Amino acid sequence: MTARRRIAGHTPAAALVAGLLLATMAPLAAQQPATPAPSPAPSRPAASPPKPTAPAAKPPAGAPAKPAAGAAAPARPGGAEPDVAFGAFQRGYFLTAFHEATKRVETGDVRAMTLLGELYAAGLGVPQNDQKAAEWYAFAAGRGDREAMFALAMFRLGGRAGPKDLGEAARLLAAAAKLGHAAAAYDLGLFYVEGQLFPQDLGRAAELFRTAAAAGSAEAQYALAVLHKEGRGVPQNPAEAARLLERAAVAGIVDAQVEYAIALFNGTGVTKDEARAAIWFRRAAMRGNAVAQNRLARLLSAGRGLTADPVEAVKWHLVAKAGGAGDPFMEDYAQKQTPEVRQNAEKAAQGWLEMLRQSRS
């Protein structure tokens, strides 16, 4: 993992707007998974539109007096001098990374400035200090480093090293997105979906999600898939939705795994394939998704996509029910099984049920 990936990793998929664009799952029909419906976007306090002018950043102590030549942080082409500071960071030698980066900022190296911000932000090799981190991020962002812009936007969103400032966060995200930062484009798209800081514009959100998706953002692939599935901001396109769901599912987005399984089971935008649907339901179920656990229980009870197995069906029903995905159909199915089947299922479910109890305690 590079330092740049680590910085981007400060914002997981739903950190900006919890639950935004995640699908809720409707109750199943007796034999077939139902298509999920999107949840409404939660509200966020309104803020003034971001101003186009950049904020003045006071250089931290030890920073060069004048900006280095060029607006953007230079990439290090193949065959260039090894990046000792980032190499040390990647290997976990944070104090060495700090000393090397400190030397390099004297030459105007903006990537080293961003690295110092990262070290201070996480308390790696140096005492954790949000104020110093923000200063270094601001100084590097002012010199065109997109990673610093994104990191500073996360500080403004979270109220670190100062009050929350959604307008400034959006300005920084827009600047980073223009420079090709995938996570910034995704997060900015969420602002347009939400319709609080900016007027809601699903078309603009889709553009930003598409940019981020093309750059490999699994969260953006899932978000864009939801828009295509529902025809919101883009033409309804089940095939494109399924294609994007598959990419996000492969990348590990659990909600995408569930929805892609449903698309496969129903043949929506993709060739119907109940066996593959069962595989994806199982993967999401093993990740703790209660909806997938319920769907898997249904398939196991009916023998669709995999061999019928009453013990496994009842086991997953019990786990799904404990996770909040109750199902009258499966409850009735479980009650009709022999005492031996129910006993074996309860025994098989104990590990899962204990984990759920511990997670809630």
Outline:
The protein has 361 residues and is mainly alpha-helical.
Q: What is the fold's blueprint, element by element?
A:
Layout (H helix, E strand, L loop, with lengths): L2 H6 L14 E2 L12 E2 L45 H8 L2 H12 L4 H13 L7 H13 L3 H13 L7 H13 L3 H13 L7 H13 L3 H13 L7 H13 L3 H13 L7 H13 L3 H13 L7 H13 L5 H8 L3 H22 L1
Antiparallel strand pairs: 1-2
Helix pairs in contact: 2-3, 3-4, 4-5, 5-6, 6-7, 7-8, 8-9, 9-10, 10-11, 11-12, 12-13, 13-14, 14-15, 15-16, 15-17
Could you describe the 3D structure shown?
There is one protein chain. This protein has helices spanning 3-8, 84-91, 94-105, 110-122, 130-142, 146-158, 166-178, 182-194, 202-214, 218-230, 238-250, 254-266, 274-286, 290-302, 310-322, 328-335, 339-360, and strands spanning 23-24, 37-38. By secondary structure, the protein is an all-alpha fold. A two-stranded antiparallel ribbon has the order 1-2. Helix 4 runs antiparallel to helix 5 (130-142), helix 6 (146-158) packs antiparallel against helix 7 (166-178) and helix 13 packs across helix 14. The chain is elongated, with a radius of gyration of 24 Å. The two termini are 33 Å apart.
**What pattern of helices and strands is seen along the backbone?**
HEEHHHHHHHHHHHHHHHH
CATH architecture of one domain: Alpha Horseshoe
User: Termini, distance in Å?
Assistant: 33 Å
Radius of gyration: 24 Å
Question: How many distinct beta strands?
Answer: 2
